[in-house]
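ENTRY TYPE: paired fold submission
RECORD: A
CONTENT: sequence, then structure tokens
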Amino acid sequence: MIDQGAVQIEENHIRHKMIISWCLYTQGTRADVPEGKKWLHWRNAEGFLWSQNLVDALNPKFLRLISPGAERTSTGDRYDGVLTTRYDGSVKVGSLGSRQAGIYYGPSDGRSAGGRIKWRLWLGPDNLPRRFQAEIATGPYGPEREVNIVRMNVLYKGWGAPVHITAPSKNLVAETE
């Protein structure tokens, strides 16, 4: 599937995260990780609802959002040994924010700033994503009228190869409430 083994994520002080079945394990530098432990175990299955509106090339809902404005570009780029076709586009959304699972989008909710997602998606001849880039810019918000920009670059490789993910050793895990 996706070669993310130990996913490097610096957002919100989380360095690694794993999702196994309905469990989420996070490893970070936050003060809430007890001494002697390296991972937090989250059993709250409702938290996975947060992943429904993620900016992610593996999210079918996100792909439906961006597909209408996609422009096809032949680049001759190869990823994971596969010739790809690149699609480019930009879409405006009513709200943007970050959650533990990643960057999310949605309709205007009156609390979050909206913005624009400028993206590039490389697909192989099998229509599987090989690379995804996004520049996510929030509209001006707050008294200083700030604009935040987050850039993503994700490579997908090893499609069809078996994936074995093992939960961290119990002596390194602290349970969350």
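RECORD: B
CONTENT: sequence, then structure tokens
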Amino acid sequence: MGFAGVEHELEMEPEVEALDERLTEPETDSSVPGKPVDSTLVVAEEDWMRGLAPLLRVLREPETLFGASSDRTPEPRRPVDWESAPRQIQDCFEYWEASCTDVLLHLMLAADLLRDHAVKICRGDMQITILQHEDLSPSLFIELSIDASSMQAMTLTHELDRRAFDMELACDGFVFCFMDGEGGDDEELEANADPLSVRPNQSVREEAFT
């Protein structure tokens, strides 16, 4: 199901139900990027934020939305503390009056973009960080490592931002970007990337979920 199809469904059905359907499609060809491979997602009634359960599932297990990963791994990084992450995500989104569904729609658009370009994700969970800006406003920074060069990761991030802007997707309270996996050419990234597209606001303070 393409993103356009999901967008049409959201006009007819509750948002989370449509998102849940997207994330729980039957397993098809796991060798094709962007094809869901998991069918066990359930949204709990008692979730304090609608859409939190599927969001956490995708962040921790990107293959449920982005399809089978390649053998490439992300660059070494600090592990995410998934026990504290839900509360910090809640605090961030309450500040912005944002929803988990906004992030999930953005991630679905990202999955369709990777499928269009036949790019697979790297193994492992996504990296999430709370950015604390100078005005004390928080934002959730999400990084997904993909099996591509740093230049291609940057280009895909720009294209995703453009598509999200054209579709007027809400993006308050979070930033998403693609990153190249282990063995990428960091010098190429530094020489060619717009810093704001890779890590927004270099002056902000980071609070990793560690």
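NOTES ON RECORD B: The first helix runs from residue 3 to 10. Confidence is low (pLDDT under 50) at residues 1-16, 24-48, 188-206.
STATUS: closed
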